[in-house]
Amino acid sequence: QKEVEQNSGPLSVPEGAIASLNCTYSDRVSQSFFWYRQYSGKSPELIMSIYSNGDKEDGRFTAQLNKASQYVSLLIRDSQPSDSATYLCAVKGSSASKIIFGSGTRLSIRP
Amino acid sequence: EPEVTQTPSHQVTQMGQEVILRCVPISNHLYFYWYRQILGQKVEFLVSFYNNEISEKSEIFDDQFSVERPDGSNFTLKIRSTKLEDSAMYFCASSEFGGGPSDEQFFGPGTRLTVL
């Protein structure tokens, strides 16, 4: 069974600090990795995708991928109260069309 | 910015009734998906669809479920005889490339299905 594991949280971070979210996956042949943000009662919103080992930066967000360790992370710099949400790690294989989601980490930014 | 739309936003039905959930994918996207999320649980893949055919389906997507692209813009999910356990948020998603590694899937706002 292919799994994506995340700490459910809640992760509480002060406003302006860096939030660090982590994810591990079990399928070694996974090729594509995504971070979605989901506000309560809303749909997943794609914030980052990463396909190669290393870091990928987009504004305040940095995704990090280590395929050897089967580990993906998301850093959020200068955290804002509006960043308070559940962050879903998602993984896709090279030939499959489906995305497998983790259960999400609930992030709370405290003023 | 183009987005996936879904109707209705909330559907209430009686157990055993048929429901059809509708989606309009992003206009230049060719790959379409349905996912569902039971309250408090993970987002789960149901089915993917390309070129008027199912590409992949999960074990959840049994004979009670079907998908269709009835025209050039709509993509539908039909549940023939709803069960209590079908109560969930149903999300439609679409992607431009599909199947390949750079396949970013964009989600619609969802339809909340409540089966009584």
Describe this protein's structure.
The complex is a heterodimer of chains A (111) and B (116). Chain A starts with a strand and ends with a strand. Chain A is built from no helices and eleven strands. With 111 residues, chain A is mostly beta strands. The model of chain A has no long low-confidence stretch (mean pLDDT 94). Chain A is 0% helix and 56% strand. In chain A, strands 2, 4, 5, 9, 10 and 11 form a six-stranded mixed β-sheet that branches. In chain A, strands 1-3-8-7-6 form a five-stranded antiparallel β-sheet, with no helix packed on it. With 116 residues, chain B is mainly beta. Chain B is 0% helix and 49% strand. In chain B, strands 2, 4, 5, 6, 9, 10 and 11 form a seven-stranded mixed β-sheet that branches. The radius of gyration of chain B is 13 Å and the shape is globular. Chain B starts with a strand and ends with a strand. The interface between A and B is medium-sized, with 25 and 27 residues.
Summarize the structure.
By secondary structure, chain A is mostly beta strands. Chain A has strands spanning 4-5, 11-14, 19-25, 30-38, 45-50, 54-58, 61-66, 71-76, 85-93, 100-101, 105-110.
Topology:
The complex is a heterodimer of chains A (111) and B (116).
Chain A (H helix, E strand, L loop, with lengths): L3 E2 L5 E4 L4 E7 L4 E9 L6 E6 L3 E5 L2 E6 L4 E6 L8 E9 L6 E2 L3 E6 L1
Parallel strand pairs in A: 2-11
Antiparallel strand pairs in A: 1-3, 3-8, 4-5, 4-9, 6-7, 7-8, 9-10, 9-11
Chain B lengths: L4 E3 L2 E4 L5 E6 L6 E7 L5 E8 L2 E5 L7 E4 L6 E5 L8 E8 L10 E2 L3 E5 L1
Largest interface: A-B, 25 and 27 residues
Structure summary, number of beta strands of chain B: 11
The H/E string of chain A reads EEEEEEEEEEE
Distance between the termini of chain B: 37 Å
What best-fitting shape of chain A do the alpha-carbon axes yield?
globular
- The helix-and-strand class of chain A reads mainly beta
- Biggest sheet of chain B, in brief? 7 strands, mixed
Taking the alpha carbons of the first and last residues of chain A, their distance comes to 40 Å
**Helix proportion of residues of chain A, in percent?**
under 10%
What is the string of helix and strand elements of chain B?
A: EEEEEEEEEEE
Number of helices of chain A: 0
> If helices are DSSP runs of H or I spanning 4 or more residues, what is the number of helices of chain B?
0
Unreliable segments of 5+ consecutive residues of chain B: none
Low-confidence stretches of chain A: none
Rg of chain B, Å, rounded: 13 Å
Fraction of residues of chain B in helices?
A: under 10%
Largest beta-sheet details of chain A = 6 strands, mixed
Rounded radius of gyration of chain A (Å): 13 Å
Bin the strand percentage of chain B.
Answer: over 45%
Give the percentage of residues in beta strands of chain A: over 45%
